[in-house]
Design brief:
Layout: H1 3-8, H2 18-24, E1 32-35, E2 39-43, H3 47-68, E3 78-83, H4 86-91, E4 100-102, E5 106-110, H5 116-132, H6 134-137, H7 141-152, E6 154-157, E7 160-163, H8 169-183, H9 190-195, H10 198-203, H11 205-221, H12 238-248, H13 255-262, H14 273-285, H15 290-295
Parallel strand pairs: 2-3, 3-5
Antiparallel strand pairs: 1-2, 4-5, 6-7
Helix pairs in contact: 3-5, 5-7, 7-11, 8-11, 12-13
């Protein structure tokens, strides 16, 4: 699997034709139509593949709600479109460098790729927040893309979805990129990362997807690199992340204000951003190398 595809799969939205839009909005167009507790899935893939994806997304849905502590998840079933293969997916109007996308109403992707489930879990986070928590959907990209990547970088064990495994499929591509950037001092300081809007983030996507993912992973798992016993790691800075989620979820709360309120220690004293950044960069540089992970 190409690491480049892992990145590009999460970037652009397509400009579909009117006919393609109709296909994405008409369940009767699809040979397989399934309904789960929280999703409808329309597909041209074999029914067993469609059922597997629906089961997976229902698992991911539970993780979304636990992670965001959402009191009332979306009541209307969200729609997933699963094409049978990449050729049909592209013919349906998807951007050429993508493997899945959320178009504002539908989560769209295709089967047959090893990373399909990573892509759907990532893009499904955007769909979930858009439908269930509008304020959080408008959070800055370091958070929305970084957290979506943490869910995309998952493992399924014993019928449960675990986020932030250190050797997840997405991590294998992200870690070498952010390690190289930090070693060359080309990474963006956290203070600047926090200020970026979506356009500025996407302009440096090849750097900032790995950076945002690694920082969110750090907030959840540090000082460990994962927690095989917990579906969501609760590391040293978990409460910082939790406070930020609570703050940014409230309509009218600015991102900067939510972040300032979140970046405090157990006694309510502001964290030193320089010290936090050093902890994060040291953590990333010491992250187990891919070659070592694969040997275990």
């Amino acid at each position: 699997m190409s690491h480049r595809i892992v990145l590009l799969a999460l970037l652009a939205l397509p400009s579909a034709t009117e006919a393609q839009d109709k296909d994405l909005n008409n369940s009767k167009k699809w040979p397989v139509v399934l309904k789960g507790e929280h999703y409808q899935l329309w597909s041209s893939a074999p029914e067993k593949d469609a059922e597997e994806m629906l089961r997976f997304m229902e698992l991911v849905f539970v993780t979304y709600t636990q992670l965001l502590d959402l009191p009332r998840p979306p009541s209307q079933k969200m729609v997933i479109i699963l094409y049978k293969d990449r050729a049909e997916y592209l013919a349906g109007g998807a951007p050429g460098g993508s493997a899945a996308y959320y178009n504002g109403t539908r989560l769209v992707g295709y089967g047959g790729d090893k990373a399909t489930f990573c892509f759907f879990a990532h893009e499904g986070f955007h769909q979930f927040t858009d439908w269930g928590l509008k304020a959080l959907h408008k959070a800055p990209p370091w958070f929305t893309e970084g957290m979506a990547d943490c869910i995309g970088n998952h493992a399924v064990r014993d019928g449960k979805l675990y986020v932030c495994p250190k050797d997840g499929q997405l991590a294998l591509g992200r870690i070498p990129a952010i390690q190289a950037a930090i070693k060359r001092k080309e990474h963006l300081p956290l203070a600047k990362l926090f200020e970026l809007d979506q356009a500025a983030f996407m302009a440096k996507a090849s750097l900032l997807y790995p950076e945002a993912w690694s920082f969110c992973h750090f907030l959840m798992a540090y000082p460990a690199y994962d927690d095989p016993k917990a579906q969501i790691p609760h590391g040293k800075y978990w409460k910082v992340l939790q406070r930020y989620i609570l703050g940014i979820s409230k309509s009218g709360v600015k991102s900067a204000a939510a972040l300032e309120a979140a970046l405090v220690d157990e006694k309510g004293r502001p964290l030193d951003l320089g010290e936090l950044e050093k902890e994060w960069t040291d953590y990333v540089l010491a992250y187990p190398l891919v070659s070592n992970v694969q040997k275990k």
